[in-house]
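SEQUENCE, STRUCTURE TOKENS:
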Amino acid sequence: MSKTMIKKMAVVMLFSLFVAVSPVAAQNKKAPPAAKPSNSDCSQMDDNAITTAVKQRLAKSRIVVRGLTVETHSGVVTLAGRAKASQKRRVTQQAKAIPCVKSVTNNIHSNKCAPPCEECADHSCACPPKTCVSNKNVSK
């Protein structure tokens, strides 16, 4: 074979590879998030429906949050529980994706031992007293 023929074959092979890979690369791009309905569409969705939708979406996402609580008041969602630090942002994103959610307050603590918040001095939102570093001397 001549050098010219080899170059032509190389060009054809590269072009074929490009054409074959392009659809796969296009499928890997994330679709833009769906637009949320306007506030007027939210008149039929109450806080209980938003809370249920957030819980269902988090369950489907397979994000593990121990002791998850979801509360909604006037479209403002408050999340609490314990999860890996890397999952905290994902939980917020999932909740914000629910239609009619105005904002999300994420009170999820890292799985690492954290001091209790003011509302739960009994450590219900932190580590149990016998494993908490700051409470090694606390007895049950």
